[in-house]
Write a structure and sequence with these properties.
This protein is α/β, with parallel strands linked by helices and about 375 residues long. The protein has a single domain, classed as TIM Barrel, CATH 3.20.20.70. It has twelve helices and 14 strands. The strands form four sheets. Strands 3-4-5-10-11-12-13-14 form an eight-stranded parallel barrel, surrounded by four helices. A two-stranded antiparallel ribbon has the order 1-2. Helix 1 runs parallel beside helix 2 and helix 3 runs parallel beside helix 6. The longest helix has 17 residues. The two termini are about 20 Å apart.
Length: about 375
């Protein structure tokens, strides 16, 4: 690769001891292509291997337990077979010179009884998320979840700890805790989904307790230098809301400064929040002034805006989702400022190789022309 010193996207970066060859990060992308038992397959290994030139790959959301499942054919990291399946993936990535973190996921209320033997999904409070979710039978309405009992919560914290341990056993270089997009951790953080009156609800300190317990458990298990976390402070996915997210996440960011994490991964808003009080439109830039460690930023970046974010020191690393989905050699394309493949939204979820492992690299395109 031509590591043009004038392109900061191609600069190396030390991620708390893990050397990254560039700052182009592959964002987590649910693809719903796991095998029977939610076990990763050789096809998944091929997909990730193709994208090993990323500075760091962050895997698709990976369930920490059967309770955490909310979508069809999404991988887990709680069974022996799943660990064995992920070993194929991490081996393929490492043999291709890459680095990969596992994203640890519990969907909470964004699920259906079909995944839980007919029982309701769980959440901080019995409040239904808005909208529908993708299933193998098409889009389905979400249901009202069951509120977790206080004495159940430590068991879920331990599920995160065990999942992190399993991820390292499977060969991952670290883990990212999924605290964004309206899933369980964000359901605890944001008071629109959390109406608890115990030590896990009410004040900002109490609503933050669950995520801080998860971070402590995971960091203690595998090391804080191998632990990252993803947030969407201004996110409104599945109707998630908070009365003052600016204040809530400022509190959290100050607390996270004590952990010496590998990184925090911040999502810019995916919808217009200009009419929402205390919802930041420039999330990463604001929390750059609060959080002292490495920041990955995500949502809506292209080559030029990624370069500008690095030059302005808004973030240290730039995560790309759809662009990496359709361009397995994205860092090389950025190096040459080459034309990019367009992603096919019809093949995002489910299926086989089409729209998954058949996007060509530049080298393959040149061979086809020749």
């Amino acid at each position: 690769m031509n590591k043009n010193s004038q392109n900061p996207l191609l600069a190396e970066y030390n991620l708390n001891g893990l050397e990254l060859p560039n700052r182009v990060i592959m964002a987590p992308l649910t693809r719903s292509r796991a095998g029977k038992g939610n076990v990763p397959t050789e096809l998944n290994a091929k997909y990730y291997r193709q994208r090993a030139s990323a500075g760091l790959i962050i895997s698709e959301g990976t369930q920490i337990s059967p309770q955490g499942v909310g979508y069809p054919d999404t991988p887990g990291i709680y069974s022996d077979d799943q660990i064995k399946g992920w070993k194929k993936v991490t081996k393929a990535v490492h043999e291709a010179g890459g680095r990969i973190f596992a994203q640890l996921w519990h969907v909470g209320r964004v699920s259906l009884p079909r995944y839980h033997d007919g029982k309701k999904p769980v959440a901080p409070s019995a409040l239904k998320a808005e909208g529908q979710i993708f299933t193998s039978d098409g889009m389905q309405d979400l249901v009202t979840p069951r509120a977790l009992e206080t004495d159940e919560i430590p068991g879920i914290v331990d599920d995160y700890r065990q999942a992190a341990r399993n991820a390292i056993a499977a060969g991952f270089d670290g883990v990212e805790i999924h605290g964004a997009n309206g899933y369980l951790i964000e359901q605890f953080i944001k008071d629109g989904a959390n109406k608890r009156d115990d030590r896990y609800g009410g004040s900002v300190e109490n609503c933050s307790r669950f995520v801080l317990e998860v971070l402590t458990a995971v960091s203690d298990e595998i090391g804080s230098e191998k632990t990252g976390i993803r947030f969407s402070p201004s996110g409104t996915s599945k109707g998630i809301s908070d009365s003052n997210p600016k204040h809530t996440y400022t509190y959290l960011m100050y607390k996270l400064n004590d952990f010496d994490l590998a990184y925090i991964h911040l999502m810019e808003p995916q919808s217009d929040v200009s009419n929402k009080q205390n919802h930041l439109r420039n999330v990463t830039a604001f929390y750059r002034e609060v959080y002292e460690g490495t920041i990955i930023t995500n949502v809506g970046y292209d080559r030029q805006s990624g370069i500008e974010a690095l030059e302005n020191k808004t973030a240290d690393l730039i995560a790309y989702g759809k662009l990496f989905l359709a361009n397995p050699d994205l860092p090389e394309r950025f190096a040459q400022d080459a034309e990019l493949n367009d992603p096919n939204s019809q093949t995002f979820y489910g299926g086989g190789e089409e729209g998954y492992t058949d996007y060509p690299s530049m080298e393959e395109e040149q061979e086809n022309v020749a």
